[in-house]
Amino acid sequence: MSDPSATPRRVAVVGAGSIGVGWAIVFAVGGQEVRLQDTDPLRLSAAEAEIGARLADLESHELLRETPAVALGRIGFHRELGAALSDASHVQECVPEELELKRALFSMMDVLAPPAAVLASSSSFLPASAFAGTLPGRARCLVIHPGNPPYLLRVAELVPAPFTEPDAVERAAGLLAACGMEPVRLKREVEGFVFNRLQGALLREAYCLLRDGVAEVEDIDRLVRDGLGLRWSIIGPFETADLNTRGGIAAHAARMGPSYRRMGAERGQDDPWTEELVARATAARRRALPIESWEARVAWRDRALMALLRCRKRGELG
């Protein structure tokens, strides 16, 4: 977790649903002054109770540096959008994934927020160019897409539009880092960004396997939970491939690439791992891990898996 003693900024979170609640926790635990806004008073009241309960859970798992009451005390709850945005340096929009709603809201935020404030959307699929492209202040607009819940999955995609100023991206990344998040900067807009495209690829295949009578829901979940997911909790797909075959990711691609291509073609997707793509992936992995350190990293991976399995055995994980 971040250091809450750092100089705070004022952050407005617009929308008090599950993502808004999660962002409010991230910013408050990160030492920021937070204004959580929603037009529904019942939702605001429920959000306050939800935040208190989640902060208590974080404390019980030793993930807070301070008491829940101190973190909760940094959050104000507002019905009026103008009051929440009046002196914010960062605005995080968290309303439903509806294009016209986001267009209307960003138009209001562009008027009500201070000119220097960054305006960010928590959109899961819609790029900023779809709802902020005609605004006078469009240069300060971008998408910051978190995992859910963001106070536990502490990584977020920063997705600038072609019109987003680099300074807005820098300031947003700095705020996230100050709150203990890991900002991942995408090079360009694409629907669904990276998080949901990867997630969607797995879900599409899972639905196909269910449809085709290959496996049932429970079995597919078990294979991901106790196999792929366990491994992916410590390393990503490229490092997984790199460590799964002696000789690294190039050897893995040579051995497994044709089979993966056939499986893709079976679903109507012909995206082979070309020599150029494999070379790019190999170069990135060798910069991160020299081949002479491969054995040591494999041993590290195995010890990390052992630690996770020990937690499960003790009942500390589900």
What does the overall shape look like?
globular
Contiguous runs where pLDDT drops below 50 for at least 5 residues: none
**CATH T-level fold name of the largest domain:** Rossmann fold
Output the CATH homologous superfamily of the largest domain: NAD(P)-binding Rossmann-like Domain
Structural class: alpha/beta
Helix content: 40-55%
Q: How many β strands by DSSP?
A: 8
Overall mean pLDDT: 96
Kindly report how far apart the N and C termini lie. Answer: 23 Å
What proportion of the residues form beta strands (DSSP E)?
Answer: 5-15%
Radius of gyration: 22 Å
**Total number of domains:** 2
CATH class category name of the largest domain: Alpha Beta
Reading the helices and strands in chain order gives: EHEHHEHEHEHEEHEHHHHHH
Write the layout of secondary structure elements.
Layout: E1 10-14, H1 18-29, E2 33-37, H2 41-60, H3 68-72, E3 75-78, H4 81-85, E4 90-93, H5 99-112, E5 118-121, H6 128-131, E6 141-146, E7 155-160, H7 166-178, E8 182-185, H8 195-211, H9 217-232, H10 237-244, H11 249-266, H12 275-288, H13 294-313
Parallel strand pairs: 1-2, 1-4, 2-3, 4-5, 5-6, 7-8
Antiparallel strand pairs: 6-7
Helix pairs in contact: 1-2, 10-11
